[in-house]
Write a structure and sequence with these properties.
By secondary structure, the protein is mostly helical. 66% of the residues lie in helices and 2% in strands. The mean pLDDT is 91. It binds protoporphyrin IX containing FE.
């Protein structure tokens, strides 16, 4: 029996890609605003906005772990044979960095919460999707806040690179790479 190589990701992988993409872009560009809350804002509202930040981050982490497991069980379709070796290598490195960011950002964020609470005790009331108070992380002596902030900046660069690469494949190489992740 012949098996025909798939040319697209499966529906689960596509759904995870686009849901995580929207959430991650929002968090990388506006997550800081949620966490700072702004001036002239009540402590209650600041806790609500910080809870959104923590909840989105936790959901991104859970979806990303599931996505990683799904990818290991369901390998992606083969890349177009016309792609240069450096393109394949750069693509792999970018995707690896994305997985590191999608899992590393929630962890460094969680590790940096205690210092935030030390400065503003009301952040101890921050909850995950309104269900549980965010557990306070142990102090591992890491500059977690700085790592988290650096991760967000690297995240902006990664997202930019990824979008530029997709546009190059779509409009310059015209190799149909974007269709692999498109359900349409
Ligand atoms: C993918 C997930 C996440 C992204 C993309 C993200 C993004 C960001 C961004 C952009 C900032 C502002 C950094 C700056 O102003 O330089 C920030 C701050 C912060 N985030 Fe997250 N975050 C994520 C998950 C989390 C989670 C799960 C938690 C807590 C459980 C968290 C806790 C914090 C805290 C406490 C700060 C303030 C850090 C400080 O000022 O020391 N983050 N985050």
């Amino acid at each position: 029996m012949h098996t025909i190589a798939r040319s697209r990701y499966d529906l689960v992988a596509m759904t995870l890609h686009w849901v995580i993409a929207v959430m991650l872009i929002f968090m990388v560009f506006f997550g800081g605003d949620l966490m700072r809350g702004g001036t002239d804002v009540s402590a209650e509202r600041k806790v609500f906005l910080a809870s959104l930040h923590v909840s989105f981050g936790t959901i991104i982490l859970l979806l990303s772990v599931f996505r990683l497991a799904w990818r290991l069980i369901n390998p992606p379709p083969p890349l177009p044979a016309t792609m240069a070796r450096w393109e394949v290598a750069l693509g792999k490195a970018t995707h690896l960095a994305f997985y590191a960011m999608m899992t590393g950002m929630p962890v460094t964020g969680w590790l940096s919460l205690p210092s935030h609470v030390a400065r503003h005790p009301y952040y101890a009331e921050t909850s995950i999707v309104g269900l549980i108070l965010t557990p306070l992380a142990p102090d591992l002596g890491l500059p977690a806040g700085r790592l988290h902030s650096l991760g967000a900046k690297l995240g902006m660069v990664l997202i930019g690179l990824h979008v530029l690469a997709a546009l190059k494949h779509q409009f310059f190489d015209r190799n149909g790479l974007l269709r692999r992740m498109s359900p349409l």
